Amino acid sequence: MNADRRTRARTAADRQRRSRPRAAPATQARSRTTLTRLGSRRSLKLLRRQEGCEPMHDEMTIGARLRTLRRWRGMSLAQLAGLSGLSKGFLSKIENGKAALGRRSHISAIATALRISEADLIGGPHLTADPVRAAPHATVPAVRAALMTNSLTAPAADHARPLAELVAEMGRIDRSEYKHIEVGQKLPALIDELHVHACAPTDEPAYRLALETLVEAFQAATFTSKDLGHGDLAHVAAMRAAEVAAILDDPVVTGKAASLRIHTMPTTARDVALTAAEHAANALEPHVHDDLGVQVLGMLTLAASMTATVIYDYDRAEHWMRQADEQATRVPDTPGLNWGAFSKTNVGVWKVALATERGASSGDLLGLAKNVDEAKLEPRRGRHATFLADVGRGLARDKRTHKDAAGWLLRAEEVAPHKIRNSAAVGETVATLVRQTQGASLGRELRGLAARMGIPH
User: Fold this and answer.
1) Which structural domain, as residue segments, surrounds residue 187?
2) Which GO cellular component terms, listed alphabetically, does the Swiss-Prot or TrEMBL entry include (predicted)?
3) CA distances (Å), 167 to each of 1, 3, 214, 395, in order?
4) Backbone angles phi and psi of 14, in degrees to 5
């Protein structure tokens, strides 16, 4: 009798064990636990922010985010290295904050291997207590509404200022020293009112002028949104420009719109972006008859050179850079006046950007930087700041030039604080410099920059 009871008990226990759900694999379980903890921490941070107890910023570094995403995918470092083409040691350094993830090619390779977007890896836009950094973000909702509520058959507004006044205002926005804030404050109403003129033009010239000015407005919206981390919104603006360009059927305007679309393509589609840039440049070249045409062609050429660099096709990159050098001799060296700032000076700026992307030595990078006349960049604060930051990011890879790197980054912030403090690439470099120099005397200035960017220091 007792034996029968014991047998029945064992049988019931076996059935109960078999009915239990299987435990997830160890890696998957750890990944889920990690993500749950991250979610809990973020919820707690959000609650504290709402209560005014904590500044609004994401303290998660790109390295920490990479580790979380890699584990979420159930990949080892060795597996990620094999899929991305980057070394296991380098990936480990990124995760541990000993190396910055700043090259577009590296970001693209990792995002492709993990099957995620660039924003998943580097993080999206977020706010800090710093008003200079936060202020531009407050203007994004109005820009978004203007881009998405207007159409070329139904404007969102019912009245508009004179077209000549709107064209003049677009010119002022384009020349604004603090472009992000200026765009956010002035651009939404400008887009609304230009649609009014496009939908009910007084004549054909007025119709075309309204559409041409809309393309310039969409360009401003594209790069401001992109700089602030709103990549999808930037793409919406670029596609609106393409919509207008198709109506105008002008090769130069089509080239402008193509340039915007290329710059907003996903990081994981660089080969498609290169094909698009080369096609756009080749299509425009036979129709170039004035300075504006050369400037638009030049910016497409530079985009092709950069995109080829990102996919490691350095021969094609050099080919397109030689083309840009030749084109720059055909227009005045006035980046402040030229479309897209295309000029000899801006070509020099792009050469620095390409060298930083390729991982050039500090000596080579500084040699290229010396060829850039910074005085000519003064009217283009955003472009000037990007140049300074690219030099700083490149120098930061070499321990021997850490101090010089900090100096260039601080100069970049001084030129355009709103742009630099919102730059994910600069933020990653600053965070890595701070971690690598713990206990070292790198100066209060760098740690001050880290504080203003919401980076733990």
Assistant:
1) 128-264
2) cytosol
3) 98, 96, 9, 42
4) -65, -45
Judge whether 186 lies within some domain: yes
Euclidean distance between CA atoms 166 and 334, whole angstroms? 24
207 in the same domain as 109: no
Contact between 339 and 298 under an 8 Å Cβ cutoff? The reply is no
Q: What is the pLDDT of residues 253-272, one digit of tens each?
A: 999 999 999 999 988 788 99
Amino acid at residue number 189? A
Q: Residue 183 — pLDDT band, cuts 50, 70, 90? A: confident
Place of tokens 């021997």: 400
- Sequence letter at residue 148: M
125 Cβ contact partners less than 8 Å away, ≥ 6 residues apart: 137, 140, 228, 229, 230, 422
Number of domains in the chain: 2
Cβ-contact 406, 444 below 8 angstroms: no
Tell me the pLDDT tens digit for each residue of 65-87: 888 889 988 989 998 988 889 99
Task: Evaluate whether residue 98 is within a structural domain.
Answer: yes
